Amino acid sequence: MTTPVNSRRWTNWGRNQESVAEVLTPGTVDEVSAQVNHATQSGRRIKVVGSGHSFTAIAVADDQRMFLHRLNQLVSVDGPLVTVQAGMLLSTLNTVLAEHGLAMPNLGDIDAQTVSGAISTGTHGTGAAYSTLASCVEAVTMVTAGGKVERFTADAPEFPAVRLGLGALGVLVDVTLRCVPTFTLLADERPMRLPDVLAGIDEWNADFDHVEFFWYPYTDRTSLKRNRKVAANDRPLSAFRGWLDDDFLSNTLWQGVCKVGQKVPATVPALSAMAAHALSARTYTGRSDQVFCSPRRVRFTEMEYEIPRAALPEVLHALNRILDELPFRVQFPVEVRFTGPDDVWLSHGYGRDSAYVAVHQFLGSPYEPYFRAFEAVCAGLGGRPHWGKLHYRDAESLRSAYPRFDDFLAVRDRLDPGRVFTNDYLTRVLG
Questions:
Q1: How many other CB atoms are found less than 10 A from the CB of residue 6?
Q2: Radius of gyration of the chain from Cα atoms?
Q3: CA 172 to CA 32: how far, in whole Å?
Q4: How sure is the predictor about 251, in pLDDT bands with cuts at 50, 70 and 90?
Q5: Which of 80, 200, 234, 344 falls between 20 and 30 A from 330, CA-CA?
Q6: Is 250 left (phi over 0), alpha (psi -120 to 50) or beta?
Q7: HSE of 15, CA atoms in CB hemisphere, 13 A
Q8: How far apart are the C-alpha atoms of 54 and 70, rounded to whole Å?
Q9: Pair 130, 116: CB distance under 8 Å
Q10: Dist. CA 255–CA 331, nearest whole Å
Q11: How far apart (Å, rounded) are the C-alpha atoms in residues 231 and 293?
Q12: Where on the phi/psi map is residue 326: left (φ > 0), alpha (ψ -120 to 50), or beta?
């Protein structure tokens, strides 16, 4: 088969997924509709790609790859309801919202994703009273198979599916988000022993708005982060301290530490202990999105699992055993976050209080035995893999994890009967 002249090679942020596909760059909804209609009529497939921050093959295109970066504008602001085009980056969204005295109620720790990519894969932050970003969606406009432009609001039977659709239902072209007034967070960040964190985590989840921690392998040390809403931004982080902690220590120096550990694996436990003590305690205030989000320049591969919150100690205990049995060393800390239940059908947190446990490995280091062993533990406890993070599950095993799995498939059959928007990953996880 002849490769189209406008085909391009694409690689994701984690550099573990790539493909060559014909590139589509629509600048209007009409252009999206026309391109989808042409694909439907000609038996072709389209895969929409955001900013490439998924580690799974969810965005890998084998025919046509559609970028929505030209659809990146603010559409409307109606009180707390803000409609933006789907290709807008979260970093841009945060700036636009702040200009209107608004904010997202919660965010993850990076803001490089597109709005459509973030909600479609289940991107989330931390906080017992919050869930995925998809839970903030009040309406979407989507181009479905055949080029039909459809608007879905809360009263539509498909709404619990299209809020987090894995890119399997159509092309999102705009999203309406329920936002909140701009708010300030007080951040309390400190090193702490893992047993002490586990002893206090239930109390902190009740007392703070947002709680997470990083556990350093081969040690009993963690970095605990707790955020609380406050009235005034009266303790801003100095520019030097922000650069030292978030730029130099967490990126520049960390990159060097990982490279040393990669070349000399025997040094990893000592390096992990050193890293656990490098970041000292700090307390500061800031605009919510600036506290939530941090730069991430050290590249890695990641798997993240949602588990019932009560299962967290068991999973961490199993991880200790897994680390000891691996034929290689793990260089990255384990990240733990928390969310509350929601009613989005393919949300990892559907119907229950959740802990999220994320395992990482430095770019270029072996990871599969680590990730598979971790997945076996989480799956056995009813865990659900993050759609944008590496996992090895298929439709048969996922059906039992998601009570509304077949309801989602029924919506897919209606909106994309010819599977215009599928790829190998979606065939694996949805059937």
A1: 11
A2: 21
A3: 10
A4: confident
A5: 200
A6: alpha
A7: 9
A8: 20
A9: no
A10: 11
A11: 20
A12: beta
Q: What is the pLDDT of residues 44-97, one digit of tens each?
A: 999 999 999 999 999 999 999 999 999 999 999 999 999 999 999 999 999 999
Using N-to-C axis directions, what is the helix angle for 312-325 and 368-380, rounded to 10°? 150
Largest CA distance in the chain: 63
Single out the residue of 43, 124, 142, 101 nearest to residue 344, CA to CA: 124
* Burial classification of residue 240, based on how many CB atoms lie within 10 Å of its CB (0-12 exposed, 13-18 middle, 19 or more buried): exposed
* Whether 3 contacts 21, CB under 8 Å: no
3-state SS, one letter per residue, for the chain: CCCCCCEEEEECCCCCCEEEEEEECCCCHHHHHHHHHHHHHHCCCEEEECCCCCCCCCCCCCCEEEECCCCCCEEEEECCEEEEECCCEHHHHHHHHHHCCEECCCCCCCCCCEHHHHHHHCCECCECCCCEHHHHEEEEEEEEHHHEEEEEECCCCCHHHHCCCCCCCCEEEEEEEECEECCEEEEEEEEEEHHHHHHHHHHHHHHCCEEEEEECCCCCEEEEEEEEEECCCCCECCHHHHHHHHHHHHHHHHHHHHHHHHHCHHHHHHHHHHHHHHCCCEEEEEEHHHHHCCCCCCCEEEEEEEEEHHHHHHHHHHHHHHHHHCCCCCCCCEEEEEECCECCCCCCCECCCEEEEEEEEECCCCCHHHHHHHHHHHHHCCCEECCCCCCCCCHHHHHCCCCCHHHHHHHHHHHCCCCCCCCHHHHHHHC
The Cα 413–Cα 296 span in angstroms is 38
Q: Which two tokens stand for residue 60?
A: 């890998």
| Amino acid at the residue 56 | T
Provide the token pair at 68: 């929505």
pLDDT value, residue 276: 86
Separation of alpha carbons 87 and 115, rounded Å? 6
Amino acid at 409: L
Q: What is the pLDDT of residues 18-45, one digit of tens each?
A: 999 999 999 999 999 999 999 999 999 9
Place of tokens 């909140």: 180
Burial of 291 (0-12, 13-18, 19+ CB in 10 A): buried
**Nearest 5°: CA angle at 65, between 61 and 69?**
135
CA–CA dist 33, 142 (Å, integer): 9
Q: Give the position of tokens 């904010």.
A: 103
CA–CA separation, 406 and 413 (whole Å): 10
